[in-house]
Specification:
The protein has 199 residues and is α/β, with parallel strands linked by helices. The protein is built from 6 helices and 7 strands; from the N terminus they run H-H-E-H-E-E-H-E-H-E-H-E-E. The protein has a single domain (9-191), classed as Vaccinia Virus protein VP39 (Rossmann fold). The chain has helices at 9-17, 23-34, 52-60, 91-99, 117-138, 155-165, and strands spanning 43-46, 65-69, 79-83, 102-107, 139-150, 166-172, 183-191. The chain has a 7-stranded mixed β-sheet, sandwiched between helices. The longest helix is centred in the middle third of the chain and has 22 residues, at 117-138. It is globular. It starts with 8 loop residues before the first helix and ends in an 8-residue tail after the last strand.
């Protein structure tokens, strides 16, 4: 039997409108709220499968859109994809070679959830830290960053880290998130640099 969420209103709307998952609406909300993506930006989407954020990104920018995931992503017209692991130290160089300039990095990835809240939250924060390290390695100065995390222990540390590397670091809870979800997005705008805030 599938998830209790599998056929809810958000899912049905996504299927009707041609999106691969309901997550598409979260990115549309974030864009409307924060104006992260400009019309000519090159954008990298981390943990991009099944591709709903890539579908939205393709409508938001005329720049290049690159999705990265551990698993292959079914083709989307006008979107490039790489099968890759955020833990791979060669990945940032591969992305820069492919795109040249990277204006925006987005990450809606989640760890596989165990049901143990504190463990899952810690893994989500660790994944967010990996995404931030990747963004630091590829973003051009002034670039933007969005990463999903979960509220709880260690979350404040991740938010503080984003704020040391971007001129603005704020949180956003998407209305399209499932009721009762602890997920929250961190939005970093105007990238300062990897070494910003270092001792």
């Amino acid at each position: 039997m599938g998830s209790q969420w599998g056929r809810d209103k958000g899912y049905r709307n996504a299927m009707r409108e041609g999106y691969r998952s309901r997550a598409a609406y979260k990115l549309l909300e974030i864009q409307q709220h924060a104006g992260m993506i400009r019309q000519d930006d090159n954008v990298v989407d981390l943990g991009a499968a099944p591709g709903s954020w890539l579908q939205v990104l393709r409508t938001l920018t005329g720049g290049r859109v690159l999705g990265i995931d551990l698993n292959p992503i079914a083709p989307i017209e006008g979107v490039e994809t790489i099968v890759g692991d955020l833990a791979d130290p060669t990945l940032p160089a591969r992305v820069k070679d492919a795109l040249g300039i990277v204006n925006v990095v987005v990450a809606d990835a989640s760890p596989k959830l165990s049901g143990q809240r504190s463990y899952d939250q810690a893994r989500a924060v660790a994944l967010g830290e990996q995404a931030l390290a990747f963004a630091c390695a590829v973003l051009k100065p002034g670039g933007n960053f969005v990463v999903k995390s979960f509220q709880g222990e260690d979350f404040a540390e991740l938010l503080t880290e984003v704020r040391t590397k971007f001129r603005s670091g704020r949180t956003y809870q998407a209305k399209a998130s499932r009721k009762g979800s602890r997920e929250i997005y961190i939005i970093g705008k105007n990238f300062i640099g990897c070494d910003a805030g270092a001792d």
